[in-house]
Specification:
Elements: H1 2-6, E1 9-10, E2 16-20, E3 23-27, E4 32-36, E5 42-46, E6 49-53, H2 59-80, E7 83-90, E8 95-99, E9 102-106, E10 113-115, E11 121-125, E12 131-136, H3 139-152, E13 162-165
Antiparallel strand pairs: 1-6, 2-3, 3-4, 5-6, 7-12, 7-13, 8-9, 9-10, 11-12
């Protein structure tokens, strides 16, 4: 983590970073994020870059150093570009749709499963209803919502039915051997 922590975080045009003690606020074209960090780690703003420094070389300070830098970088990237997590739905009759800001999944249960959208999270579904994407400025929140969606019907190894990440590989198993 020490190598990650040493790299300064570049601040692109259109993004403003405000550092007060251990509170960092980042504003950009996509939104605004704010987060508190450990008071042990010093965060400074120098010539359009954010620099993170640690007081000692102790193990917990080294871990906090890299973590703090990575979280600040995710905040800057989130408000400037945003984050996307894409999912695929496999299975006969399985589909998704967007109702206002909410995501509605029909994945084999007796009832549709609804995920509420917010100002921070938006859902997009293609016209087939088989591919969906979760968009937002907070990487942690986008990943958590995508994981909850996947958890409603995880991919099963026999027929491959369920909800999976777009780049996920699901190892398939052989079914019953059958016979006489």
């Amino acid at each position: 983590m020490a190598r990650i922590g040493k790299k300064p975080v570049p601040v692109p045009n259109g993004v403003t970073v405000n550092v007060q003690k251990n509170e960092v606020t980042v504003k950009g074209p996509k939104g605004e994020l704010s987060r508190s960090f450990s008071p042990d780690i010093s965060i400074t703003l120098d010539d359009g870059t954010v620099v993170v420094k640690r007081p000692t070389d102790q193990r917990h300070h080294r871990a906090l150093h890299g973590l703090t830098r990575a979280l600040i970088n995710n905040m800057v990237v989130g408000v400037s570009e945003g984050f996307v997590r894409e999912l695929q739905i496999e299975g006969v009759g399985y589909r998704a749709s967007v109702d206002g800001k909410d995501l509605v999944l029909s994945v084999g249960y007796s009832h549709p499963v609804t995920f509420e959208g917010s100002e921070d999270i938006s859902f997009e579904v293609d016209r087939t209803g088989r591919e969906l994407s979760v968009r937002g400025v907070d990487k942690e929140l986008v990943g958590e919502i995508a994981a909850r969606i996947r958890r409603t019907r995880p991919p099963e190894p026999y027929k491959g039915k369920g909800i999976r990440y777009k780049d996920e590989f699901v190892r398939r198993k052989a079914g019953k051997a059958g016979g006489k």
